[in-house]
Every structure is written in C-alpha cells, then in structure tokens.
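New to this. Please check both lines:
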Amino acid sequence: MNYTIRNRNPSPWRNAVRVILLTVLVATGSACHQTDEVRRGTVSIPTQAIVTEIARLEKNSADGVEYSVWLGKPNGEVQYQHNANRVRPAASAIKTAILIEFLSAQIDSLDNPFDALDAILDNPKSPAIRHFDAEQKADVQKELRGLTVRQLAEAMIHKEHIETNAAYNAAANVIIEYLGGPKALTERVRQRFPAAPGLQIARYMLADRKTHADNLLTAASLATVLRFLAQSTPADELHAAARNVLLLETDAERGDHYYKGGTLTSDPQVRIEAGWWDYRGAAFVYVVIATRPMAASSAEDFEQLHSNLGELSQVVQSAGFRIRDAAVPQ
C-alpha cells in the first residue's frame, strides 16, 4: 500500500489490529441492531457491519454513549444512516462550514496576509481571544501573526503553521469575528446550506460551554457541507481551495482523503470523524459521531470514547470503500 500523509493528523488506517477487525466485521457482519434502515430492509451487505459494530459498542456501554452515522454519495444518495438527524455538539468539525465561508469571502486574496488579523489580535476586547488566559493570548499573538488567508485556514483545520491548541482554536475565532460573529456566520452558513438546519455556530472556540450556547450539528447536516465540497463539479476556485486545505492523505489504492474531526472532553463529551474519500472522481462521504453525557474524568477516560469511535469510523469507511469500489470500473 502506497500513501502519502501531508504532515497532518495520523492516518486512521495505521492500526493493523483494527484493520483486521473491521475486515472480519465487513465480511461476516449480521444485522442485529434495529435501526430505521434495518426495519425498512434497506441495509446492504457492506453496511450490515456498521449495524453489528454499533450494537457491539452500545451493548458494552454503561454510561449512555450514543452514536450517529451518515454514509452516502456526494449527490445525497444515502447508503446508511443511524441517528443522523439527532442534534450533537459540533466540536471542531463545524470548522468545515466556517472554512467555506471564509475562503468564499477572501477568494481573491488567498495568499496575501490577512488584513484583519492584526486588529483582532491586538484588541484586548476581541471576542476571539478575550476569554483566553495571558499565556494563551501570548501564544496566539505569536503564532498567528503574519499568516496569509490560506495559512490561517490551514491553521484552523489541521494545525499547520502553529504549535498550540490555543492558536488552533483562535484561528477559527478570528475568522468567526471577521465574518460578523456567531449569529451572522450561522445565517451565512444556513443561506448556503438550507438543507442543513441543524448547523449552529453559537460560541467562540474554547468559550465556556456552560455559560454560552453550544455549537451544534447533526450527522446529516455535516454531511451536507461535506457533500458540497466532495462533488466533482463545479471545479471552481472555492472548491479547489477548500479541498486543498482539508486534504489529509493520498493513498494509491483508496484515493484522496479529505478530513476534519472534532473533540470535546467537557460535558457532554463528543468525538467526531468526518470527511470523504475520492478515487478518480468516485467518492463517498462519511460522518461518525459519539457523544457521552458527562465530562471526562481523565485523559484515559476519554480515550475509551475516542477508541470506540475510531473503530466504528473504520467500519463505516470500509463499507464506503466496498460500495464505492464495486461501482468503479477496474
């Protein structure tokens, strides 16, 4: 297998044990979890493995973990969904929608220094950073200073050009403030994606979730945003720029992987993996979400949710590959 990772997040396919597990699940999965798709008799052989994996995870969970899944084509054809319209905390996965609006507003200046950056960073009352502590503010001002539009977008999505988590989140906050704040940005997103009403940008990143309304989405609404970018046409500058920022890895067999996930350890916990794989114009979109109604008591505590969601995500993507590749001429 030949693949190239663009110095971004580790590929979810590196864990050999999990790959073996998902292969067995896909080959032998049986439908034992009664989703709407099962009751309607629309679950395909590849997606039966998803049903099996969700049933296994829920059976072994004693703390109210819930999962949402959307798997389908860029044209909106659904191949599998589970709790896809359940509203969930958005975490950093909402940044894909923010990315589109930012690049659209700056499409003629992608490689120029972002003009609004210094004014926001130097304003102590800026809602983008006023809730940060002194150390975080210093990191943000040092790491974001001088970035171009494209570089700021890359910092927000895959932590490129920066080092700290504060700068990663502040990059999104600068963009939110520049685009008019959470309410105005939500309106922009909903105008572009009227079929995704579950999307809501209500707070700046790292702002207290108890004193601010949360950023929200559904698996289906996030899939709508991803499908917009995954479609092979139109191949305009906005689509090309956003895809380039989201590209995580290129695999000789699987194709190009575009990705943006999200993580929150406070109450409720959430872990999201979402993106699409494109091989010579044939693509599938996936969104997988896990939520747990309590704060993580430790890094190890959250790691179990992270690990379980990762396993489910791999099963979902494996089903997507099987469905997609069966339709691609060899």
